[in-house]
Queue: 4 jobs
Job 1
Amino acid sequence: MDGFDPAQSFGPEVAQRYDDQLRGDEAETVDLLAGLAGAGPALEFAIGTGRIALPLAERGIGVDGIELSSDMVARLRDKPGGAALHVTMGDMARATAPRKYPLVYLVFNTIYNLLTQDDQVRCFENAAQHLTDDGVFVVEAGVPWAWLRGNQFVDVEYVANGEVVLDVNRYDPVTQILDENHVTLTNAGVRLGPISQRISWPSELDLMARIAGLRLVDRWGGWNREPFTARSERHISVYSR
Ligand SMILES: C[S@@+](CC[C@H](N)C(=O)[O-])C[C@H]1O[C@@H](n2cnc3c(N)ncnc32)[C@H](O)[C@@H]1O
């Protein structure tokens, strides 16, 4: 997308509204991650506003984070318990957190925010560097076959009396880049929310893990450990040494 800067995708306006409409699967996400973390600590790549990290920390598990956007972290800091978490500001493909972790996790398609294959590989390598010997890296990402519908498509995200949100998409299968614009229409006007993502197949992510010295040990179709099938719209993948 011309002029798109990934670092600006989660600026002050997005951060302000980020938690207004939660996904609704936070409880089962935290349940599964808590089970994998054991006594912890856990490290969240792209911790954002703490949507998952804060309820995980409430379970008594120490949670650290890495995050690019100071606006998202400001929201995290404003929430109860948010000031106590250790967050390293920087790129999850490169930044170093202070400890080794039995659980490193990266949810909500955020691996795709890294726009090159090299950076996605680096992210797996960075996760591996942070794992204890028996630690696991958990990745949640949408599957391309459920998400992409040709090279251009529009999804209706939200319809209400005073507001409509459309997701306008253009996909380039050569670069695997999906340019997406969340277009919010109200009587007051139009608001654009651009983001680009590099969409990878699960098998490509598995090979990235192999390059980083990790192997796939589990893959589910949802946070309740639903089987991963041809109908799954996303995968929750668990990698270990
Ligand atoms: C969809 S949000 C997910 C936030 C949080 N993990 C959650 O589940 O609510 C994506 C987050 O990734 C962050 N992000 C994007 N690219 C990043 C990178 N290279 N390194 C660290 N954080 C990044 C954004 O700033 C944003 O906070």
Job 2
Amino acid sequence: MITFILNNKTIKTDTHPGTTLLDFIRYTENLPGTKIGCREGDCGACTVLEGTLVDGKVKYKSIVSCLTPLGNAHGKHIVTIEGVNLKDLSPIQKAMVDDSATQCGFCTPGFVMSFTGHGLAEEKSTYNKAIAAISGNICRCTGYKSVEKAADTINELLKLKDIKDPIKWMVENNFLPHYFLEIGSRLKEIEVNPTFKNSSKIIAGGTDLMVQKPEEIANADLNLLYNRTDLKAIDEKNNSIQIGSGVNATEIMNSSIIQKHIPDIASYFKLISSQQIRNMGTIAGNFVNASPIADLSIIFLALNASIILKESNNKRNIPLRNFFLDYKKLDLKDGEFIEYISVPTPKKNTKFNFEKVSKRTHLDIASVNSAIHVTLNEDIIEECSISAGGVSAIPKYLKETSDYLQGKKITNGTIIKANEILQQEITPISDVRGSADYKRLLLRQLFFAHFIKICPTSITLKELLS
Ligand SMILES: Cc1cc2nc3c(=O)[nH]c(=O)nc-3n(C[C@H](O)[C@H](O)[C@H](O)COP(=O)(O)OP(=O)(O)OC[C@H]3O[C@@H](n4cnc5c(N)ncnc54)[C@H](O)[C@@H]3O)c2cc1C
Ligand code: FES
Ligand code: FES
């Protein structure tokens, strides 16, 4: 039985766990405020909030309901636009109206939910964070200037919030109805780790499977990993960082452990999907979907990650670079799942960089992406790992190029020579994201960009291109 709170109502249902939350909200619960746009996670019209009880407090985040399997709602507080309505417009709804950020209104519930999620975050509001909160919301009417104005108004109002208890502050200031104050104690009564029937169809965040195979998921026996708290930790021990397979992209970019070693992680992750999708999609889901341009696969290949695979009581530890065998073929046996990811703790004199080029800067998949991880002893490369996506049938670890650079002094000549080796290692094909020649050129540019960023005093673009 899937049990959760939808707005102010406790739901107990035996509806199939692979049904979309969106359909359940609209067609079973008859709440039409949550809109259906693309059903692919791209437009944000179906955005709702998901509240989870963490250490006795409810933490909210925005998600897209079109890609959420109903089973993932178990034990949560799901909030639709109807659930934030008060007698009068909330300050967020009022800002959308007063700043002319709503015209036909189709996108408006999604924007209101994303802004409300921003308000509920336990962090200080800034204009940039308010804008980031709506990175997954599209509007075809307003041209966005008025939405930006509303974001500015909302940010000014939210600057006053109490970040220790944003729920109470939002209720007291008429952003949210009073019932929000009772949700924590109501969630405590729901058993959070239900045993769903174990089967081979694993689903985590659903952001890949619900796009690729929605009909299959709607009928399959599902092994839902999303609510498994044992797969959610990020720890640092024994000279390695261990990331549970159920950790999502937002949790990685906000992790103090990851930020300590890769200070720019948030700026790289902003290039990956949208806030809603990052709030859902997991690291293991990114690896197993085996897309040749999967951003997390590229980043973690360069970080020399290993994956720990589990089947009953058996475990296997394999380097991520050996996991990808051929196009969409993985070294993953029936019954196995990724339990966690292990990354050697980066050394002090290590530098990391990630580059991604896509047709749109935000909410787009890469044409070509690349990551580098180097350990330097002054201007000598002691260790080097480079990866690239969109230039091979698999997320590619560039072994020959990485090996060549090991022990070399960083000069423009070394990098030019390394690019020649790199070009031998890749096999791009022409497709909708560009011709094979274009992708070769693009990867050369990204490869040069790595070194211009890492060693700005030794490497110059002028010399590299001369
Ligand atoms: C709008 C949109 C934008 C996107 N943008 C990007 C982007 O910019 N960059 C990018 O890289 N990706 C992007 N994606 C793809 C997707 O969001 C990510 O790949 C995400 O990390 C997938 O994780 P998930 O948990 O949602 O996977 P799911 O859909 O739950 O699962 C994907 C696959 O992984 C398997 N799986 C999940 N967990 C495990 C496990 N622990 N062990 C074994 N198998 C497992 C499932 O069986 C399935 O085969 C985007 C998706 C959408 C919808
Ligand atoms: S309907 Fe477009 S993101 Fe869900
Ligand atoms: S107001 Fe019409 S789509 Fe945004």
Job 3
Amino acid sequence: MLNQILAILIITLSCISCTSTTVNLNPNSPTVLITGANRGLGLEFSRQYAASGWNVIASCRNPRSATNLHNLTKKYPQVAIEKLDVTSDRQVNTLAQKYHSQPIDILLNNAGIYGTLEKQTLGSFDFEELKKVFDINTIGSLRVSQAFLDNVLLSDQKKIISLGGGMGTQSIGRLFGGHYFMKMSKAAHLMAMGVMQTDLKNTELQIVMISPGRVDTQLMRDSGWSGPSISAEQSAQLVIEQIAALKPDMNGRLILYNGTVIPW
Ligand SMILES: NC(=O)c1ccc[n+]([C@@H]2O[C@H](COP(=O)([O-])OP(=O)(O)OC[C@H]3O[C@@H](n4cnc5c(N)ncnc54)[C@H](OP(=O)(O)O)[C@@H]3O)[C@@H](O)[C@H]2O)c1
């Protein structure tokens, strides 16, 4: 009986420990919070910021299976893995409470999905799919931005960055057809970020959406794109350079990974 209780206790404790990691962030280093950090661009952002000595709060839906992130923590102990589904008020609020009063220099709204292509094609719209894409790309990023706003305002750099895309946030005057849900969700999120920037214009906060290019990740494959692409490593490096060099006229705007401001 005692053995059974001990076994249950060990399993419970090991489950708790693999859903998040307790890390003492270095108070002398800047801090970035990244959503969807377990793969693709999010993983690459985590790796590159960690390699530059940043504290990285690397959040993802399933820390238990985030093997690449766990490997990263072996090399960079200032990487904290946290459980965060951006569609969950409870999870977002719990994490915000955990990091209450922790300055966050950059909040990187990276988590996103493309949605199934056929379901966002005229003639076969699936509106449940539309809700799902909005829940993650539009509402999720807004929810996280609101929850961590005070953390960002407490920091030195004060930046909220969301990832957009040529597909999702192309200039309204240069539209091409199809891909409705992805385009709508990112355009709506860009509007939300622009309004938030206007609300907070008397602060030093910078809110910018950056298009990372066509990047060879699962999301790009979901988009049906089979043309040229760049690697997540290259793209993350270019985006990080842009984040470091943001100019005042980019505030509330969408920029490309090469720094071009997109008219929208
Ligand atoms: N790749 C491109 O060409 C491209 C172009 C323009 C913009 N972007 C943007 O770049 C960002 C990153 O995409 P990616 O290319 O790196 O795609 P990816 O490899 O498919 O990664 C997407 C990430 O989002 C996470 N995610 C999905 N739903 C989530 C939720 N509810 N809560 C938290 N995390 C969630 C995924 O986690 P799971 O593993 O748990 O699903 C995964 O970590 C997206 O916002 C995307 O729109 C990408």
Job 4
Amino acid sequence: MQRYMGGMATQRQREIFNYIVRTARAEGAIITTHDIPDVDGLGCAHGLGRHIGGRRVAIVTGNTIQRTDPLVDKLGMDLKKWSEIPKDDGRPVIVVDTNTPSLMRSANGRKNNILAVIDHHCVTSTPLDADVFIRNEKAVSVCEILASLIPSSRIEGDPSIALALAVGIYGDSDRLLVADTPTLRVFDDLARIHGEKRPAIDALAYPPLSARTLVDLLKDIKHLRTETYRGKLIAVGRTTQEIPAVFAMTLSNMSINVAVAVGRIKNGVYRLSFRVKESDAALGVCASEIARETSEILHMPKEMYGGGHGDKAGGVVYGAYENVVGAVMKSAKEAIDRALGRRA
Ligand SMILES: [Mn+2]
């Protein structure tokens, strides 16, 4: 009997995973994740790549950001860009940490030949078209799903996999704040295997923001639109950060109930990052619903709808900035109505 660290996979999913790994070992694989990847997506890609092994496995991403550089360096990851992959590259693609086509814009036109999606987000209305799906919305991090799919003995034999998965879990659980006891146990096992202490993992998952970034974030705050609705503070605003999640997270840390950062991709095209305070998400104010409804109001095509979790979500929308802000405000209020209405 194989043993596993995590409990976030069923026997059937482990069989599917074995099929994915067998196929990837025979044909090579391109492992990818959502655009502007976070440590969960990158950690999972690294762990999966090491587990498959061989020289025909490439990890391909869109642009990465400074915040993930320490982990990428520490793991010695060799990240490729989609532009380096020939159009007729026949290797099957494995996508981790998203099932949403609009969050994989960098792979535009290369989304065919997807062998598998391994993810912990709710299904988007028009998810990626893959041969097989391994999904578990209960998992706080896709890295915990991978720790439930790769046998323990294998992870124990490769501390680099253990570190990648530990950092991913730590990063996606808000520094373990939203990790329950079984998840904490998985994290502790992984950290013990690599021998890395908590402060070192913290520095890989949450490297301190530079002074330059802090100054920019403080400027962003000046342009914030805020409204109090049924006792909840909603804040929406443009950010200078290339990854709007940095701004959304900053606002969320200030206990704003619904925080939405609007990053400009180009004129009329915006990347949105949604954060709902944990206690409000528990009440039923759902970030992924706000993301989806914002896309609906802005008449986005279905395959572009945003999505994510109850407390965090993302999306890409087209429209004039004022309309985007208006759509976000309306969606946030409706989500609050639904949550509070349900309780009334
Ligand atoms: Mn994740």
